[in-house]
Amino acid sequence: MKSKVIVNTRDVLVLVLAVLFISIGLAGNLLVVIAVWKKRSLRSTTNYLLVNLAVSDIINLTFLPFIAIQHYVWFEEGILADFMCKFFSYHIPLTASFASIITLLVLSIERYHAVVKPMKSGFRLRQETVHYAIISVWAFAICLTLPYYIFGYSRKSKCRHNLPDDAIESYVIIVMLTVVIVPFFVISFCYLQIVRELYLKPKQVGPQNVEIAEDQLVKRKLVKISLFVSLAYVICFFPMAITLFLNAYDEGKFGSKHYRNASILYFLESAVNPLLYSFQSSNFRQAFKELLRCRGCLR
Predict the structure, then answer these.
(1) Contacts of 19 (CB under 8 A, 6+ apart)
(2) pLDDT tens digits, residue range 93-123?
(3) DSSP class of residue 115?
(4) Domain map of the chain by residue range?
(5) Where does the G-protein coupled receptors family 1 profile domain lie (predicted)?
(6) 8 Å CB contact between 241 and 176
(7) CB of 38 within 8 A of CB of 297?
(8) Residue 172, number of CB atoms within 10 A of its CB
(9) Cα 181 from Cα 177, distance rounded (Å)
């Protein structure tokens, strides 16, 4: 097995950022999972979907060191090179990312029906059924990235697809439509309608509307979390999606610099979500404080 090590000043900075993202992100996302598991008050369909996002982020951050090793130490041939490319390259994190996007899509549709059309059954998830939605999300994400696992290595110094150009172009277009363009427009539509319903509709004044106002306040808090998480994901994931799209057509012309910068932003999102939960939700903030104060609670 041959290998080649490539490191420069920029690479050292990227590695330092990677260590920082991994440390903050793993700790924060594990706190999210434990908080929902330990605190009954946090067990809601929305929070279960946020836990699924946290699991996706944990997978992303766990595989980040392997991606770094593969980027800086190129295994030029052998079984290890094949194995590293197929399972420890961007493939597993890409599956997790697709699961995140689909989860955000499910979350936006569920919130839309809960806020805009509460009197209709529509797409309303319950605690008894939300796990079916989560399983379906991961099954779809795995199916969508399956070609990467099958054709992920071309036995060159870099991990590249082993598909004909016309096949990879068609596949990339399908992926872009399925997990980037369609989710973006659906999520945007859902949250625009939600914001219109909660903030822009004229409010009726009267004693009989006190309960309605309180209910809207609760809905606003729930929507804020999912809205900010969705915005963060769009900001952090879109550069990576565009980079992958361009690299699929001509990696040499586009270059690895933009790919690396997009990767930093991509993994930053995995570390930032728990901070968003903490800032936007007093329940999560209180749960985090209690868990950090109580050592035995983390066991």
Answers:
(1) none
(2) 889 989 999 999 999 998 888 888 876 665 6
(3) H
(4) 9-197+213-293
(5) 28-277
(6) yes
(7) yes
(8) 18
(9) 5
